[in-house]
Amino acid sequence: MFGLNKEINKTRAWKHLEKYASKIRKVEMRDMFEKDPKRAEKYSINLENMLVDFSKNRIDEKAFIYLQALAKQAKVQKKIEQMFSGEKINITENRAVLHIALRNLDNTPIYVDGKDVMPEINRVLAKIKDFSEDVRLGKFKGYTGKKLTNIVNIGIGGSDLGPKMAVEALQRYMPKDMKCYFISNIDGTACAEVLNKLDPETTLFIVCSKTFTTIETLTNAKTCRKWLVDALGEHATSKHFVAVSTNPKEVASFGIDVENMFEFWDFVGGRYSMWSAIGLIIAIAVGYDNFEKMLAGANEMDKHFHSAPLDKNIPVVLALLSIWYNNFFGIRNHVVVPYDQYLTYLPAYLQQQIMESNGKNVDLNNEFIKYQTSPVIFGGAGTDVQHSFFQMIHQGTSFVPCDFIIPAISHNEIGEHHEILLANILAQSEALMKGKTVKEAAEELKAAGKSSEEIKKLKKYKSFKGNRPSNTIIFKKIDPHALGMLVAMYEHKTFVEGIIWNINSFDQMGVELGKQMALRILPELQGNKDIANHDSSTKALIEIIKRLRK
Hints:
- By secondary structure, the chain is α/β, with parallel strands linked by helices.
- It is 48% helix and 10% strand.
- It is built from 23 helices and 13 strands.
- The chain has helices at 12-24, 29-35, 39-42, 61-73, 76-84, 99-102, 118-137, 158-169, 188-195, 215-232, 237-240, 248-254, 280-286, 288-307, 314-328, 346-358, 390-395, 417-434, 438-447, 452-458, 480-501, 512-526, 536-549; strands at 44-47, 50-53, 111-112, 115-116, 150-154, 179-183, 203-208, 241-244, 261-262, 333-338, 376-379, 402-407, 470-475.
- Strands 1-2-13-12-10-11 form a 6-stranded mixed beta sheet, with helices on both faces. The protein has a 5-stranded parallel beta sheet with strand order 6-5-7-8-9, sandwiched between helices. A two-stranded antiparallel sheet has the order 3-4.
- α1 (12-24) runs antiparallel to α4 (61-73), α4 (61-73) crosses α15 (314-328) and α22 (512-526) packs across α23 (536-549).
- The longest helix has 22 residues, at 480-501.
- The mean pLDDT is 95.
């Protein structure tokens, strides 16, 4: 059975790490590099056109061994095997976790309840291929016979963030006559601003809702349907709407042809679903061949994760480093900075991926947890963020571990732009590691001709503690294959963290409470129903809002 680990913070491996962390806090990384010329080689992993350099971390050989011992104590390898073999490791919902099956291009049988899931997955992939190509070639036309060149994805959470991130990341592969839009927020402005840019005759809407009852998604879909019907008439719906769902009755009731409904399965969680029919907009936007290359990249990472030993396993190593800082240094934040404009939405996607997965306080033994779980994830595209939160990263009172992501080759090699970008990312990681002592700052000020008084005044302000950790992840180029590898890497890293913390990374109970309460408040806002069973603050806020809206 999945779970039932001993409390991880009471294990021998955990105790060793607690004791050793107090020693290594005093060690400077710049000294580690000076003592070991092969440090970068020792603490980096190559996989195809991907390099992960984790040498700029506050670890040495003993710390790395202790971290691997922690992974063994948590039975990481056994639990990886349980996921790949289709066991129901999502124990709170009694489900298998098989996003890895969606990109199983080798077609190796994977069984759930004794049934191979691959034939059904392949059937849906073939349907995605046919439909996406028909839209791109203009064979599937709108109601008035025009080519559909404006593609709108209507979803929320995993049905929005993953596809939006991927389409933005791969926009260089999109045809020039096509544009993609995403509507997720229930705020009417989100819907209105997209519709204002569209022509009904050339717009295709993809409604993504497993149950076809999600209130945010269906509210947005109904608004878009009314906009279309007002322009083209009732019968246009079936030519301008398709669905990603498992509820054919509700899909048909909406006016969508059930032949244009694309299924996915309960063994695929929302934040892991961009590989499924939820990725339909990706296949339309960049072509099915490129969508398949993205699946192949993820599959490459899956194979590596499944078979590589702990010390050479990229997701495992990154997860262990995250736990090292989170649980043994008391650092509660982690930054992801892609130095590639196309990866602008990656940090937001990873916020959901990591914090929705591991932001839990009950373990698999049904006990409240007494140690820290998920860190807070934030980030943004370099070099923009160097002028926002990097001040805090360099000179704040506590350090924040960083992931730097960079392609060696840009899709847009214009002048010296990319060399300057590369120089910036390499400089940031080195500066965070080395820092600048007060003495070095004083010498620099003296060389600049500053007076003794100015040096005394400025030297501390100009100093940097350094010893701040980072990982550098380099790809040859951010193409569909590389994107697949990158996203799968973070998926598996998140899973390993969850294994060690002994939590279920695949449910999201915390999302539900607010939604339940919103459904109770909605009729109180809309009508004259008595406002009851609320705290005094919420009750007063409802009354004020109702008065302001009159």
